[in-house]
Each structure stands twice: as C-alpha cells, then as structure tokens.
Amino acid sequence: MTARPRAYTPPPPPRARPDDVDPFDRQRTASRDLPDPEPLVRNLTCGVLEVLAGVREVDQLARWLAEDAYRVLLTRANLATRARSARGVPAARPVHTVLSTRVTSPADSVVEAVVVVAGPARTRAVAIRLEGWDRRWRATSLALL
Fold it and tell me: Distance of CA 72 to CAs 5, 10, 41, 62, 65, Å?
C-alpha cells in the first residue's frame, strides 16, 4: 500500500505584533490623549445646522467627519438645497440657541453626545458619535432629529 501525497497547505500568516503596525494607518487614540469633546460637539452641531440651511459648505466640516458621516450629511444637504429651490426660499443663516448638551463615554476613545437646539420654528436634537483617531475626535455618526 502506497501513501498518497498530501496537498500542500500554506502556513498561517504571522500574527501582527505592535512593531508590525504601519505608522501611516489610522491609529486609535485613548481618551486621555484627546481634548475635551464638548466644544467640538457644540460647534459641530452649529456647523451641521448651517450646512442644512445652505450657508456653509459640507467641505468645511470634512476634517471632523468620518467618511460615512460626511456622505450622509452631503446627501441631506443636497436634499435640503433642492427643497429650498423648489419652494423658492433663499438660504438664510439659522438662529439657534443651544439648550442642553449631554456627553457620555460608553468606551475608551468613544463619545456619544446629544445637543438640544431651539430654533425659531422648532426645537431639534442632534445626536453625534465621536471616536478618537489620530489624536483628534472624528464624528463617525450624525443624526438630526
């Protein structure tokens, strides 16, 4: 009886070690190495409302937005622009008052915040999730309620 040759199976790839980390990839940053997120949350909320009102470009907020959040905001801004155009309403700077800000941290380098904003017509809430990447906060999710 002759033994059948076994098929070649390559060895598993080596496990990544800390010294194998590419310094040019995005790096997670611990909360202790990041600034206070509350000013960013308030300013980002005002910026988002200005984008939707048509008086600010989405590109001006790109630095603080992750790619998915940027795309969602861009789509919503385009829809708002079309709606204003269909009604014949010009873009006007919104007048809002921040009523409250609530910031919580469910995990290290993650912040979830809700900002309640009062405008002339209605009161709205903006929910933002920030994550610490490359030694700064970036919004990975935005929801305007």
Answer: 55, 43, 17, 12, 10
Q: Which long-range contacts (CB under 8 A, 24 or more apart) does 118-126 make?
A: 119/49, 119/94, 119/95, 120/95, 123/99, 126/45, 126/48, 126/49
Per-residue pLDDT of 4-20, as tens digits, reads 666 666 666 655 555 55
- The model's pTM is 0.78
| Structure tokens given for 138 | 């970036």
CA of residue 66 relative to chain centroid, distance = 5
pLDDT digits (tens, 9 = 90+) for 135-144: 899 999 999 9
Tell which residue, 74, 118, 81, has the closest CA to residue 98.
118
CA nearest neighbour of 76 among 57, 51, 43: 51
Is residue 144 packed enough to be buried (19+ CB in 10 Å), middle (13-18) or exposed (0-12)?
middle
**Residues 46-85: tens digit of each pLDDT:** 999 999 999 999 999 999 999 999 999 999 999 999 999 9
Copy the structure tokens of residue 81: 């622009």
Answer for the pair 80, 94: CB distance below 8 angstroms, yes or no: no
